[in-house]
Amino acid sequence: MKTLKVPYCPELDGMDLKSATAAMETIALRQSIDTINWPEFPYKPIVAFDIARGDKELYLHYFVRGLSLRAVAGQDGQHVHPDSCVEFFVRRNDDSLYTNFEFNCIGTCLAARGAGRHGRTPFTDNEYRKIRRYTTVERQTFEEKKGIYAWEVTVAIPFDLMGLDALYLPQNMRANFYKCADSTENPHFVTWSPIDLPSPDYHCPEHFGELRF
């Protein structure tokens, strides 16, 4: 099982996310999203994420460089996986439900809870407002742009949105990190922790890796 240790960086809590993004360059843990599980989708952009935690939030900074850029979804709750998209799925060890957090390159978020792909409970507007976001791409929707683009998204997700008590974090959790862009000229489905399934499917907690606190 793929594992990572999330560093504790309370200094991030007092920063705006642009400043936190710069700080994470040296204090966070960096990992690559570079596993191709399905040979029929061979394209692999350069994707890395930095991860750290403060006292109340989990910080994720994604860096992407690759072909095409798309951001059609402009409102939280809309499907963002057809766009240039990064994702984080997480589950407590003692819970049958997991939470998916999906962000396109302009910061639009889709998040929900459930035991599987179907019948998920979407986040409320109030829950979406709790997720702080910073992007290097202007927050304006657009159709696919051809070419090579580099972009970054940083998010701060409150622990309570993951079903956690920030004062009593578990020793570990299960999670996976993804990069996709289903409706672009070069669709791809790249993961951090490998997935052994016949076709692309991110809703598979049995293939999550481990986060250690």
From TrEMBL:
Residues 29-213 form the Carbohydrate-binding domain. It comes from the Bacteria. It comes from Tannerella forsythia. One of its GO terms (biological process) is carbohydrate catabolic process. InterPro entries: Carb-bd_dom_fam9. GO terms for molecular function: carbohydrate binding; hydrolase activity, hydrolyzing O-glycosyl compounds. This is Carbohydrate-binding domain-containing protein. It holds the Pfam family CBM9_2.
